[in-house]
Amino acid sequence: MLLGLADSPVFTHLCSMKWTRPPRQLHRWAVAAFFFASGLTFASWASRIPEVQAIHHLSNGALGGVLFALPAGSLISLPLWGWMIAKYGSKTMLLSGITFYVLLLLLISGAGSIGQLWVILFLFGMIGNLCNIAVNTQAVGVEKLYGRSIMAGFHAIWSLAGFSGAALGNLLIAFNATLFSHFLIIGILATLLVIVANTRLIQGDAQTQSSAFMVRPNKELWLLGLIAFCCMACEGAMFDWSGVYFQKVVNAPRELVALGYTAFMSTMAGGRFLGDWIITRLGKRPVLQASGLLIFSGLLLAVLFPYLLFAILGFMLVGLGVSSVIPVVYSAAGNSKNLAPSVALATVSSIGFIGFLIGPPIIGFIAEILSLRWSFTFIAILGLGTTLLSAKMDANK
Fold this sequence. Notes:
Growth Hormone, Chain: A
């Protein structure tokens, strides 16, 4: 019977088939691996911030000053990376970026003074942004191969890496692992991902004509940048103030203070895994409009009903609203007809990142004058700006 099966035409045909993945799927997996490596590296640093504070004997104020080095490096370097990626190609710059990103992570563990730590974190922010722009440029290229939305899925992988990095960090802390040994393990994992995936990155996206170092955003990029600004201001506020809100306004028990941040992050990650499916069926503009309404509704719910269950539900709605905005905006910017994808991405990121920087300080300023609930009301209005601004987008984009 087995011999008869072996001689059958069907069996012969199956054996002659080439069981290989389609090239675009291999590209997709490779880019996803770099998203994961980048997210894992950043989350590993973030999980050790309290220990870095203790090692260098930093007060809360001094720690805030040191941590400002990261966004400062990110913001200053945005135009440079957009230009360099356009000139030398996203693959070359991504491979260089992830290599230095891992090395700088190791250097953080060896910083001998606050000054050294500040410089290393400034460079860490710069190189992190290089990885961000380069890997999103790669993602835009893969998305063009598919002809449909897949950007949200890549950002979901970054969020998953964030959870993984935080969980691994907590595990290694429990085993009293040193900073260097922790970061060395992450460096090895990231390097293995790079070795496996680098040959499947998209090549040949360097521009034959050199792009301008600084560009003035056109109307389309301004609109995308302002949408990103509104969303990232909300995102920054949730990152920095969700725990404080649960502690001082919701009056959550000490062991439940982190629930707000957890609720926000869980739905943000989950929303990104579902995002491409929703975007493909509804379109980019309706998704952005719905996202702004979710952010507004969630924050307003937490403000009007500052009780544990309502606040958790509100923060979950905010996470869901935030989840797809940046992937949609990056995808639209990367498909700009007037600029190289990396330059367009850097331009929109620059505008959006300002929102991420000023959102948390604005909350503190308003809270000092009025209250934390009024601060979150203002952020809710900014979230609604995502809906209002996206109404001006071309319905076909």
